């Protein structure tokens, strides 16, 4: 009786993905929880110091909600374009994937640029982080978020370059993309909290 041919395990099959890639995503969730603690601490510090002006300006005097609203719209739109990019990746449409992630990168870069312009303007007006405890807490919180967005932009570029290679669409690549997706959407949630708690409540 002839022996049946044994099929080699399919690279990137369900078992391989479940046993080797799921821990990566789980580990990234753990990292995001530590980031929640970091931002929670910064929000708590801002809440404590939000009225410590030391004779300097309040948020109502220096915040421009129009510009901040534009930043918010840009970052939220970048989450939508990233979602389209993720869908293209699952469909293995390289052109669409690169296009949507390219748009996401440009939107994120615009967000960082607007944030830097806001910081530059405030410092030029003498309202830098050394002006008061309120401004120190503000700059620390918002700049930490901006640094995370900048890190995400570098990560987007790395994933776009990797998608051009032979490792594209493998379970390992898709796992990295999932982690990046979690990170990018997490930053959107944090920014909504910043917009509401830092800007809106300071102006009202």
TrEMBL record:
It is a multi-pass membrane protein. GO terms for molecular function: cytochrome bo3 ubiquinol oxidase activity; cytochrome-c oxidase activity. GO terms for cellular component: plasma membrane. Pfam families: COX3. Residues 1-203 form the Heme-copper oxidase subunit III family profile domain. Coiled coil: none annotated. The keyword Nucleotide-binding does not apply. The chain crosses the membrane at residues 28-47, 68-91, 97-116, 137-162, 182-201. Keywords: Cell membrane, Electron transport, Membrane, Oxidoreductase, Transmembrane, Transmembrane helix, Transport. GO terms for biological process: aerobic electron transport chain. InterPro entries: Cyt_c/ubiquinol_Oxase_su3 (IPR024791), Cyt_c_oxidase-like_su3 (IPR000298), Cyt_c_oxidase_su3-like_sf (IPR035973), Cyt_c_oxidase_su3_a-hlx (IPR013833), Cyt_c_ubiqinol_oxidase_su3 (IPR014206), Ubiquinol_oxase_su3_dom (IPR033946). It is found in: Cell membrane. Heterooctamer of two A chains, two B chains, two C chains and two D chains. Belongs to the cytochrome c oxidase subunit 3 family. Cytochrome bo(3) ubiquinol terminal oxidase is the component of the aerobic respiratory chain of E.coli that predominates when cells are grown at high aeration. Has proton pump activity across the membrane in addition to electron transfer, pumping 2 protons/electron. This is Cytochrome bo(3) ubiquinol oxidase subunit 3. It comes from Brytella acorum.
């Amino acid at each position: 009786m002839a022996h049946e041919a044994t099929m080699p395990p399919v690279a990137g099959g369900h078992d391989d993905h479940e046993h080797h890639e799921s821990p990566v995503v789980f580990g990234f969730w753990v990292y995001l929880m530590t980031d929640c603690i970091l931002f929670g601490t910064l929000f708590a510090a801002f809440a404590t110091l939000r009225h410590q002006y030391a004779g300097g300006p309040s948020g109502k005097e220096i915040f421009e909600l129009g510009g901040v609203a534009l930043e918010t719209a840009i970052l939220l739109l970048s989450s939508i374009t990233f979602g389209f990019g993720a869908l293209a990746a699952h469909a293995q449409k390289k052109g669409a994937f690169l296009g949507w992630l390219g748009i996401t990168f440009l939107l994120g870069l615009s967000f960082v640029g607007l944030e830097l312009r806001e910081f530059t303007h405030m410092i030029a007006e003498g309202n830098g982080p050394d002006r008061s405890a309120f401004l120190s807490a503000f700059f620390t919180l918002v700049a930490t978020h901006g640094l995370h967005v900048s890190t995400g932009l570098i990560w987007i570029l790395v994933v776009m370059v990797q998608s051009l290679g032979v490792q594209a669409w493998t379970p390992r690549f898709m796992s990295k993309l999932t982690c990046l997706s979690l990170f990018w959407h997490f930053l959107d949630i944090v920014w909504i909290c910043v917009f509401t708690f830092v800007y809106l409540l300071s102006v009202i």
